[in-house]
Prior knowledge:
The chain has 210 residues and is mainly α. Helices cover 36% and strands 9% of the residues.
Amino acid sequence: xxxAASMRADGYRLLALSIDYNQRHQIELxxxxxxxxxxxxxxxxxxxxxxxxxxxSALTDDIDVPKQGVxxxxxxxxxxxxxxxxxxLCLGWAEAAEARDLVIGVNALDYSGYPDCRPxxxxxxxxxxxxxxxxxxxxxRFRVHAPLQxxxxxxxxxxxxxxxxDLGLSWSCYDPAPGDxxxxxxxxxxxxxxxxxxxxxxxPTHYAAV
Length: 210
């Protein structure tokens, strides 16, 4: 949400892509639809891709989502190669739409340690895109924008507020509680709450546990 709004503020037109990868819940997709509409995306594609067929993650398999706090190891909520898969699909649409700018909301400061959120990954994907596409080999370079890359969660909250966004429309939780509440205990909820607290901005999120 903040990444897209930041790009829009810089004058970019928006095409929004969400992946329905048969994750644990559909709430984030409903949030994505609201946000795409709010930001004036010219088109919002929700693409089905059943990653439960592979499993290997608490988000795509019958594995409990950790609730003990953010640790040092890559948690089981990591979905194997997810951002590589998502950016590859984004790249395919971008080339078809004659767009050369891809945007992803990854963050490498306040995060759960996923390898596909790091700057090295973003740079490597740009290099791969130049080799893997007709546009790339013809000299039209794709750029992957990650405007939140070096922000803390507090920075992201402040940027969202500066852009005039209703951050309560966004969704972070990996394991929603009954009543469509954020669980309040998974890594993503803890990092979200931490961001609002450190930014000194009221958290509009409804948590089942705090």
